[in-house]
Write a structure and sequence with these properties.
The chain is 72% helix and 3% strand. The protein has helices at residues 2-32, 39-56, 61-84, 93-114, 140-162, 164-174, 176-181, 186-212, 218-232, 237-258, 270-281; strands spanning 130-133, 136-139.
Length: 295
């Protein structure tokens, strides 16, 4: 029982980051109906941007974090204005392929600048100690990452519920035509959506870079978060949170109990197999919207 509790707690901590990444996917998809594969690359960008500012330039932690967030905002603005806006009205496959190409482009640029080495923040960002609560040992770095992830998601929900632009985004999520008829600038909503998604991505990157180290393989974590979205529902922020936490717990239980029986990379596919089983019975995810088209 003690082992199960330890794995569940650690899984929830990691699942918080998965939830943050998954919410970034949902924000763009709800607004534009584009599945943004480039969200995975934003994680890598965030990790290396913080490393550059915090370690290479030796900026104070607050300045390094602000620089990283600014990189996320700039990337969101550039991607929406230069790549996505010209594709409005085009077949839906076109922008999806563009996001996939952008993910590979960003990975290549990072490799050219930083090489394939793994870099770390040491104790310059989040503390590396541990708390002992009964028989459970909680790494500070993961607990703080979970708290930061949940605070970021809570701030996004408050933005949706309490600001004028947030309300405009909620209307646009439901129907673009209705939003335009109400005088809402839909293109600006798209812009905000991309900026928010990129900012969430770089925050995830800062947290993962501190836990796993800065490396180009961090975008794999972003791709793994797709399972959380499919599980929770493509258009549900609450579903993304539940899916992310579930994915984190499943991974830790898999590593704790099945890794000795199935060593190697195939063990990482077990959570995805579970998600596929869920999708067989719930194709739209647990909280996804079922759309019925009448002819």
């Amino acid at each position: 029982m003690e082992q199960i509790i330890k794995l569940i707690v650690l899984g929830l901590c990691m699942g918080g980051i998965y939830a943050l990444v998954a919410v970034g996917y949902v924000v763009v998809y709800k607004s534009t109906k584009v599945f943004n594969f480039a969200q995975a690359a934003m994680i890598t960008v965030g990790a290396y941007a913080l490393y550059q500012a915090l370690i290479v330039w030796s900026l104070p932690i607050w300045a390094a974090v602000l620089f990283t967030l600014a990189v996320g905002v700039a990337l969101g603005l550039l991607v929406e204005r230069l790549l996505m806006r010209p594709l409005i009205g085009q077949p839906i496959l076109a922008p999806i392929v563009v996001t996939l190409g952008l993910m590979l482009l960003l990975r290549g640029v990072i490799l050219m600048i930083f090489g394939g080495q793994v870099y770390g923040y040491g104790e310059h960002f989040l503390p590396l100690g541990a708390w002992h609560v009964g028989f459970v040992t909680l790494p500070m770095i993961q607990v703080y990452a979970f708290i930061i992830s949940m605070v970021a998601i809570f701030a996004l929900i408050q933005f949706y519920n309490r600001t004028r632009m947030g309300l405009a985004m909620r209307v646009t999520h439901e129907d673009h035509v209705v939003a335009q008829n109400l005088g809402i600038n839909v293109k600006r909503v798209f812009q905000y959506s991309w900026v928010i998604a990129c900012v969430l991505g770089v925050i995830s990157g800062m947290l993962l870079g501190n836990i796993q180290g800065c490396c180009v393989e961090l975008d794999v974590t972003g791709l793994m978060a797709i399972a959380a979205i499919l599980f929770g529902g493509l258009e549900s922020i609450g579903g993304a949170i539940v899916g992310g936490l579930t994915l984190g717990v499943l991974q830790m239980l898999t590593i704790g109990y099945l890794a000795p029986l199935m060593p190697g990379e195939p063990i990482m596919m077990v959570p995805f197999a579970f998600m596929l089983l869920i999708l067989i019975f719930k194709p739209y995810g647990l909280f996804g919207l079922v759309r019925i088209e009448r002819l």
